[in-house]
Predict the 3D structure of the following.
Amino acid sequence: GAGVSQTPSNKVTEKGKYVELRCDPISGHTALYWYRQSLGQGPEFLIYFQGTGAADDSGLPNDRFFAVRPEGSVSTLKIQRTERGDSAVYLCASSMQGTGELFFGEGSRLTVL
Amino acid sequence: QKEVEQDPGPLSVPEGAIVSLNCTYSNSAFQYFMWYRQYSRKGPELLMYTYSSGNKEDGRFTAQVDKSSKYISLFIRDSQPSDSATYLCAMTDDKIIFGKGTRLHILP
């Protein structure tokens, strides 16, 4: 497909478990963003990549959260020792370098029991 | 004070009315301003993208930016029930920051 693809679409896990969320951006888009969206809130910035490197990771809430993009395409958001407060929709977006025109995926809905 | 302020609504208007949605911001370094539309359980989609102060029109949508007042608006003319969604303002100097979103209901 031509759009941003995120997997899984839904993930239910138990408190304390490890979770990985995957994002496959639009081909050729050099910038990739991760956001977190809670019910009734706007997307909250977590991290963005230009190519393989994290250009800005100031939104990651603590050291339990980590993201990688080893080949400059697919990215994985990793959450260790999940907490109930981590429950949210995790949105991935990509864009051509230097534009604010983000193309979002459908999101991964994470529920921590 | 949050960087971007947006009234969450909900805002209910009759079909055919003109809708006005607004955001204020505090960071004068913001250069690019955007409006996104988000339907329930979907990712946001870009509606309008502007750089400078002034107006930009696209069909029934007009985006307005006033950098001196740090205030941006989105107007929707001839509103339709299919316009019912959450509208998010966003702005950037480097990373992209979103408002909380305004829930809009167009009543048939």
Chain B has a mean pLDDT of 93.
